[in-house]
Amino acid sequence: MIKPNCGKHSASEAELERSNLTLILSADIVNSLMDPRKAMEALRPLMVEEAAGSTFHMPPFGASRINTFRVIGGGLQGMGRMGLRSGEAVLLFDTTPQRNLLAVVGGDMG
Questions:
Q1: How far apart are CA 76 and CA 84, in angstroms?
Q2: What angle do CA 14, 77, 69 make, to 5 degrees?
Q3: Alpha-carbon torsion, ordered 36, 38, 39, 44, to 10 deg
Q4: Closest to 87 measured CA to CA, from 72, 77, 99
Q5: Assuming Cys at both sites, which of 11, 16, 75, 92 could form a disulfide with 82, CB separation 3.0 to 4.6 Å?
Q6: CB-hemisphere CA count at 13 Å for 102?
Q7: Is the pLDDT of residue 13 over 90?
Q8: pLDDT tier, 8 (very low <50, low <70, confident <90, very high otherwise)
Q9: CA angle, corner 79, sides to 30 and 59, nearest 5?
Q10: pLDDT tens digits for range 40-82
Q11: Closest to 73 measured CA to CA, from 38, 40, 99
């Protein structure tokens, strides 16, 4: 487990479970945690849900003018997740009434 560290103090697992903490991970850390095979295995449940028809998709919005960005999104009802992408940033939320932000992902999406 990666523990956030602020100076001399680091968070315990119990503290992390009680908090709404978003970790910021560099590409190097992510690459060290997941190889292409693990990434494909992680995507399997999403593909099964898509095939089952329990996903939803937002039509693209924007980018009709120069220097504007486009927003797209969708979700997985069974897994309780929804994401929005705009440019090179992705926001991932849970679909509970609190709509907790689970991840912010940035980088080249091309």
A1: 12
A2: 90
A3: 130
A4: 72
A5: 75
A6: 12
A7: no
A8: very low
A9: 90
A10: 998 999 999 999 999 999 998 887 777 778 899 999 999 999 9
A11: 99
